[in-house]
Amino acid sequence: PIASCFFPSNLTGQWINTANVNARVLINATHIHEIAKVNNRGWLRETYYVCQQTSRSQYLVKAVTKGECFSYYICFDFKDRHHNILRYRKSKSFMSNLYKLFPNRDPFYEVCSWTSFGNDANWKYQAFVLDPPAPIECPFTGMWTFKQVEQSSSLIQTRIRGGVTPRPRDHGWYITCDPQYVVSQWTICGDQTKSMFADREYCRQ
Question: Where does the DUF7043 domain start and stop, copy by copy (predicted)?
């Protein structure tokens, strides 16, 4: 399909799709190209979304998947880009041939209707993450302690590259530390405000 509209210039780039971490997304002025790994054998699914019509934050695109015979209309609703994050909603897909059979029907009106995004009152947005992300200045600095309360499988673990990590530790030196002095610490230094350092087992002894 031929493009007939443009995406905003600040959407262009390479992204990771958080709705499918195995997918990479390339966006230029007129196309969204998604390359997704479908299975463990490395088979790739390539889909092109071509801009057809736009109004405000909504973009009607025609989706074509490599190796398939049919194309579909889909609507993307983008939020304003926030640094490395691009939030979006994606509508249901509609076969484009349907609108050739019924030329009086308006694909933008139907595909970008709020009902095409689902009936959930609390609309959920997916996110593209810039790949690779570009660090920005953190608006605050300092040192804090934190406590982890989620499931054990999702907690931050102490890791050091190159081997097994003895515990507890202090500034890279392996020592014996009284458990009452072991804390989880979060640090943002004044001279390195683009980096955040988390230490799950910092010894304050």
Answer: 3-123
Residues 1-51 pLDDT 10s: 899 999 999 999 999 998 887 789 999 999 999 998 877 667 788 999 999
Stretches where the chain sits below pLDDT 50 are: 170
Token pair 């041939």 is found at: 97
pTM: 0.73
**What is the spatial distance between Cα 108 and Cα 59, in angstroms, rounded to a whole number?**
9
**The three-state (H, E, C) secondary structure of the chain, written as one string:** CCCCCCCCHHHCEEEEECCCCCEEEEECCCEEEEEEECCCCCCEEEEEEEEEEEECCEEEEEEEECCCCCEEEEEEEECCCECCEEEEEECCCEECHHHHHCCCCCHHHHHCCHHHHCCCCCCCCEEEEECCCCCCCCCCCEEEEECCCCCHHHCCCCCCCCCCCCCCEECCEECCCCHHHEEEEEEECCCCCCCCEEEEEEECC
